[in-house]
Automatic annotation (TrEMBL), chains A, B:
Protein's UniProt name: Magnesium transporter MgtE
Entry's localization field: Cell membrane; Membrane
Membrane topology classification: Multi-pass membrane protein
Role description: Acts as a magnesium transporter.
Protein's gene: mgtE
Keyword Membrane: yes
Species of provenance: Halopseudomonas salina
Keyword Cell membrane belongs to the record: yes
């Protein structure tokens, strides 16, 4: 009895180990051979080298493209390129599609134009569109010439959309049928295919002009008797998309209606392509990457083994922003240097006011930004949300301010200082709550993305604001 | 010609508006009716009220459960409960499954035991398992009694796994077939179903004991001729999962191999259930929620219209952690109060060293944590990563330290101070890089989750470390 294989990630790590071991052997012997170059070369060593190479190649050939991509991503640059050289050239294209952007760049940089074109010839128009932005310009032009008219049209169309639009994500692997035939005819038609496109959970019903009239789900096809007409069993109001639709909204529709695939239709009703759950998953993954990277102050995904220089470039933009906001906060403190000289405890306590305010403001702005993204927060909710967040900030400010006030009193035996600290905590948290609601809603009203840099912005406000409030109150009431 | 409907999110907002308008009318008249209670009641008003209610109910009945859930989530508590009362009780169950955890809690709190049990009777064992944690204990016990033996077993089994295991996510809607029949027999068998389960992209081939022998993809079934045997065309090495597998790894496998559904099999090879892309999408969404919330210092998803008290409770844990780390940093500054008294510029400059170090450390730790999560960073890479991150930190520290040194000189005309500032920047960023690599790798070695609170931890270190390094250097060299 055949026992089903496990293809879970554990065994993937095993396979990574196997490849690494083989690679080390391969390179070890290669080095030996190289060292003896020109001199007498030991035939046995050459043979061992060859044998290792063959075994490694065989291992790589067996791997699913996604697994090969994973292994390439997990290897330091030098070893990565060594493995890449051993990959069969007709598999280059499908593996390039699977690796992360950062790694793809490195692999393409290692290929000459000829190799790139060879790799790309096995790909469909929508796959080429994914690769094109990373390819040298003249290679793309050359590739265009090798395509037939339909494929070239599709590639051009896909490239004309930006990455956040449905048109850039759709593929063209669709099965279309007419509505005036019986299901038996459909079944016979399908049997003429060698294989159906991945994620074919529905067939698209079109008329002679290519206008979508409905969809016939494969499930329906399987349970319905053969003699029925397509027109009688198809769904006439499927979820459809326009190529200009926002990809994020398409993702929400896929989640909401549990879709596997959906037709993309232009404004005249003509079928243009289809979206599949696969592209939606990729999009979700990339969006999450971007959010997580931006939140941490990184511009783009970074190959974990990227060179130091590349990494410096990826990180400098947000560091520069951070430096500016830190400088502003520093100048706010500078305003009060006299006060600090007179009461040095202020210097020790001021980062607490700023830090806790920042945390509290981040809590508020995160909730609002997420609510806006899912559509649950509307501009009209502003006042209600402000009241609620102000209430939360007031309670948290009073509680934690009192705790801190007691601790400060134990340290400095200065009741007035404790009261100023507590008041500053309350006020800074109220400021954080106010800004945490107002900033994202203002950005929505002005048509911007409320998420971008929201954490940096609120932290800058609570830092400078916290220093100003605390040192200002202290200057007025303590000195 | 039937024109396909758009079910995209724009029209969802429209529908939200319609429901809100109807609801306002409904409540307005309801209030009028209530005010006149006991007195003479205007029959016309009563009629208008009734008419509004009927229209609102009709609107709600037409909505997809996911859309009804969205509308409930987008309404403030009072209006939400009013709408909830109008939902047909046989739809309660499917809508409860779709709403977010926080909103579900509020809706269930508004139902009596009788209503909950009525809502739950329409659900499958795996759906019940999703709801069970939010239901009162005795309701769950009562529900158990209403189930047949198989459903009860399944519910118990699903509840025995924790939410991060495949066993808690799988469902039981599978079509199983034998391998000794022809595809024609399979087709005839399928036609006896009224409908197939969602996401049926493959049929599971089992023997008499329920041991999985392979899978037959629907695509294959459609293109292969009728007279072939299942055994000859099925795939014998599908991707399979164990109920104890980690859900996160299952998600990676679904993404890697473009799965729509996959069998779950116990250690004896017996088919237990199946995973579908729908559950994987939900899991991804929830994981992302959790990550985003934790990063912002929130414990759990918060209903945007939750009460102030509920929100305070959700937020206090991370505020408390933040307060402790801020206190430590404050005490570090306290050590150097003498130095600050002598050179008050230190107080203004120290937050810059801490802040930029924190940003830089967050960049490093984010990359390492993500690399660990995807499996691309292994313990053995530690040294190489340390070297790289130290290099990046050195360059960034020198560049930005020099910029800041110049600015500080322009402000304070003190070259020694500028040099100390620059040195402190470099050292704190090196500390951040070191800790950013070492902390997640140490946590992996000790078997923990490297992501949890990583940002808080690294910020705490770069704050206290930055103050200590800067003020320490200043005390030694400037005073």
């Amino acid at each position: 009895m055949p026992v089903p294989n496990r293809k879970s990630p554990e065994s993937l790590t095993d396979r990574l180990d196997q490849v690494t071991t083989l690679l080390r052997k391969h390179r070890l012997v290669e080095n030996l051979v190289h060292k003896q170059e020109g001199a007498h070369q030991d035939l046995v060593e050459q043979l061992v080298h060859k044998q290792n190479t063959v075994e490694l190649q065989r291992k790589l050939d067996e791997l699913h493209p996604a697994d090969a991509a994973f292994i390439l991503e997990s290897l330091p640059l030098e070893e990565r390129l060594a493995v890449w050289q051993l990959v069969r050239s007709d598999r280059d294209g499908e593996i390039l599609l699977e690796v992360s952007d950062a790694v793809r760049e490195a692999l393409i940089a290692d290929m000459d134009d000829h190799e790139i074109i060879a790799a790309a010839t096995n790909l469909d128009a929508d796959e080429l569109a994914d690769l094109a932005p990373d390819l040298p310009r003249d290679v793309v032009r050359e590739l265009m010439d090798t395509l037939d008219a339909q494929q070239r049209e599709r590639l051009k169309s896909a490239l004309s959309f930006d990455g956040d639009q449905v048109g850039a994500l759709m593929d063209f692997d669709m099965v279309t049928i007419r509505d005036d035939v019986t299901l038996e005819v459909v079944s016979r038609y399908l049997r003429r295919f060698e294989t159906l496109p991945d994620h074919t959970d529905k067939l698209f019903v079109v008329d002679l002009e290519g206008v979508l009239k409905g969809v016939l789900s494969v499930k329906k096809l399987l349970v319905t008797s053969d003699d029925q007409l397509v027109a009688d069993v198809m769904t006439t109001d499927p979820v459809i998309f326009d190529p200009h639709d926002d990809a994020g909204e398409a993702v929400q529709a896929f989640e909401r209606y549990n879709l596997v695939s959906a037709p993309v239709v232009d404004h005249k009703g003509k079928l243009q392509g289809r979206l599949t759950i696969e592209q939606m998953l990729d999009y979700i993954r990339e969006e999450n990457e971007t959010d997580a990277l931006n939140a941490a102050g990184l511009v783009e995904e970074e190959d974990i083994f990227a060179s130091v220089w590349k990494s410096v470039r990826n990180r400098w933009a947000w560091l520069a922003v951070n430096l500016c906001t830190a400088l502003v906060a520093s100048r706010v403190i500078g305003l009060f240097e006299n006060s600090i000289e007179q009461l040095v405890a202020l210097a020790a306590l001021m980062p607490i006011v700023a830090g806790v305010g920042g945390n509290s403001g981040n809590q508020t702005i995160t909730l609002i930004v997420r609510g806006v993204a899912t559509g649950q927060v509307q501009l009209s909710h502003g006042e209600r949300l402000l009241r609620k967040e102000a209430g939360v900030a007031l309670i948290n400010g009073l509680v934690w301010g009192a705790v801190l006030g007691v601790i400060a009193w134990l340290l400095y035996f200065n009741i007035a200082l404790s009261v100023v600290l507590m008041s500053a905590m309350v006020l800074n948290m109220m400021l954080a709550a106010f800004m945490g609601v107002v900033i994202p809603l203002l950005r929505v009203r002005m048509g911007g993305d409320p998420a971008l840099g929201s954490s940096v912005l609120i932290t800058a406000i609570t830092d400078s604001g916290g220093f100003f409030i605390f040192l200002g109150l202290a200057t007025v009431f303590l000195l």
